[in-house]
Design brief:
Oligomer: single chain
Structural class: alpha/beta
Distance between the termini: 14 Å
Order of helices and strands: EHEEHEHHEHEHEHEHEHEHEHEHH
Helix content: 25-40%
Radius of gyration: 21 Å
CATH architecture of the largest domain: 3-Layer(aba) Sandwich
Number of domains: 2
Largest sheet: 6 strands, parallel
Number of strands: 12
Mean pLDDT: 93
Length: 335
């Protein structure tokens, strides 16, 4: 049997959620037996698109007005090859916080998405936003939830006591809302709580200044060992202002850690799997911290079970979509 060639186009190879997801799907046995995954890095702003020998082209590119000519040329040069775009960035929350002209952005997205045979989102909330705003024909929308290997996290012992150590994990960026969490934590008078911050980024100096000399708050910098991070905390807080999905939420659930989320965008997907929603204000997060007790970890067994199933469901969805999109090409080759 001829292996199908799937070429993934990427424009950002820095370590992070997208690259971790791509590494997972491109090496998973269920997606490599009959498929060969290749990666092509595309320089942002490039005007020269390649003609590709592939059964499927998958775009993980950031959509922008500057990059639109590239996508148009890519479509023209590969007119007979099915093309899929996976949207990793744009969400309702992102637009609310960053886009002054929503009409202009919506026009861009409709134009760009129309160049692809299918458009996939990484969360149900993101998919629903695209559909409600009529940015993509619902018939061309697919759901491919972000996933990584969670097996090492499933081996961690469950927390069976009232949570005392809260983890804030991710880029130190305005998006993640850690400034709001730190303000809430400082306002919380519970001396038995600790806040452990794992990550680095442009906001680190500002966040450290905001934390001041509170001995309960510790910054650990960037750490790639998710098992070690989860083993060191009882509960994970995700106060993001926008979030396409939030892999940290999946990993927290797999580790059997309590999970508090703001509920925006893709974080809403975690609510049905055992996360608890917090009002996205300083007072809301302070109230949640003040109220932490053993109830915060009672959902852990169910949440862990759902987390264990998520990667399997994601791989199945990828496999089914690739098969459906490449079927006509395989028929033509056989003929």
């Amino acid at each position: 049997m001829t292996r199908q060639t799937v070429i993934h186009l990427i424009d950002d190879t820095t370590p992070g959620g997208v690259m971790r997801v791509l590494d997972y799907i491109s090496t998973h046995p269920d997606l490599t037996g009959t498929m060969h995954h290749e990666f092509r890095q595309i320089k942002r702003g490039s005007l020269s698109a390649p003609r590709l020998e592939a059964d499927l082209i998958v775009s993980h590119l950031a959509i922008s007005w500057r990059g639109l000519p590239f996508l148009m040329q890519l479509r023209a040069l590969n007119a007979q090859t099915p093309m899929l775009h996976v949207e990793h960035s744009y969400t309702a929350g992102f637009v609310a916080h960053n886009v002054p002209s929503k009409l202009r952005l919506h026009t861009l997205l409709r134009t760009a998405f129309a160049l692809f045979d299918k458009v996939a989102t990484v969360s149900a909330a993101q998919r629903d936003w695209l559909a409600v705003r009529e940015l993509v024909d619902p018939a061309r929308l697919e759901l491919l939830r972000s996933a990584v290997d969670v097996m090492p996290l499933l081996r961690l012992p469950l927390v069976n006591h009232s949570p005392k150590v809260i983890g804030a994990i991710g880029r130190l960026d305005t998006q993640k809302g850690f400034d709001m969490l730190i303000r809430a934590f400082k306002a919380c008078e519970r001396a038995d709580l600790r806040l452990e911050v794992f990550g680095d980024g442009a906001e680190r100096a500002a966040l450290e200044k905001l934390a001041g000399n509170d001995p309960r708050i510790t910054f650990h910098g960037h750490c790639t060992d998710q098992v070690a991070i989860m083993a060191s905390v009882d509960l994970v807080a995700m106060p993001s202002r926008w979030e396409a999905y939030g892999l940290v939420g999946l990993e927290a659930r797999a580790a059997g850690r309590g999970l508090l989320v703001s509920g925006v965008d893709g974080l809403a997907d975690h609510l049905r799997d055992g996360a608890q929603q917090v009002d996205s204000t300083i007072s809301g997060w302070r109230a949640a911290l003040d109220a932490l007790d053993a109830g915060a970890v009672q959902q852990a067994p169910r949440a862990r079970l759902r987390a264990m199933r998520t990667p399997e469901a994601s791989i199945q969805a990828w496999g089914a979509l690739i098969a459906s999109m490449t079927a006509p090409q395989q028929t033509q080759k056989a003929a």
